[in-house]
């Protein structure tokens, strides 16, 4: 039965040890997750977390009647997050866990659309042509949202002068059909923050001129669990009245294994009541407004475990450690002389670089990425979006588990492979190189 060539369902079973060994041996061919510097997703937790995970991976989060304490912990966790994001009143906020930040973004976008539709219909105006404004560097989940829920996606292109959505020329993109603006706390391509306060100020000016009152959803997939600890004075969250909702990935810099996200609204009026379902499930009556129904409860317990285990001080230490590693790597890569940094990891512990103009015509970043992969490192190279599509960058995501010792090994391999490529007397083949990571 083993092997990708077999597509027939097995007629009979096998011993559990045999089935285990077949799968175990095949997955040995996967890369080492600790050396995967393309992914933002957590790949390490401590022994106590692993024990808690093993005790609770059978819990179905949606079954709140059967697992009432897990349900209580879920609510407790998102209220702690509301407090972390400076909600005016954490008791008045409303939120939910999700499978990840993509589902959380979908819910945030749906609430924006539904609130806009209600306001338009109450005013006797058509509500059939909604649009959503965002950077061209948004994660693909926003493309999915606009496609699945019939919302026009209006992309503000990045440029060399405007590396992120920063409010420039925003009046050209918004109108009476704009349901909201998405601001990203950690652009997937580069890790840079979009200045939410600056975007809010631009929308304030637009409202003063036109009367358009346009809300913001903050896609905080990574930065929403970095900024409160590393940049606590940065105003990006519910301290801005125009921010109606914020989403994040618990399994990114929330430090949990894959399978949990969170979305919070500043108060209940920002979440339309007609998006909330009340269902009878196994004898209980409960509200639900997630897209997924059955979903794991273990990661929610792991998230709460980390809140108790680390607190603000502990999260600050962990995130600061990751950023120190990012700064070390960025400085070392800049020091090779072959590359220019796009950013240095001073927002989230993520940074990108490009090949220095005129450095070589014999190789490119795709070749360097392939060389590093042969050494076990997955360091993606890919083109930037839209107006910057001719620019290729390479990116490192520093997560918990990438120690300073491992970072020194990585930097040494980058230096060695760069020198090897620089020593080429003729160009490398170009026809087989391709992006190694898709957003």
State the gist of this model.
The chain has 439 residues and is an alpha/beta fold. The chain folds into two domains: 52-307, Aspartate Aminotransferase, domain 2; 311-421, Aspartate Aminotransferase, domain 1 (Alpha-Beta Complex), CATH 3.90.1150.160.
Helices and strands, in order, run as HHHEHEHEEHEHEEEEHEEHEEH
User: CATH homologous superfamily name of the largest domain?
Assistant: Type I PLP-dependent aspartate aminotransferase-like (Major domain)
Number of distinct helices: 10
In total, the number of domains comes to: 2
Outline type: globular
Secondary structure tally: strands:
13
Family: Belongs to the group II decarboxylase family.
Catalytic activity: L-glutamate + H(+) = 4-aminobutanoate + CO2
Protein name: Glutamate decarboxylase
GO molecular function: glutamate decarboxylase activity
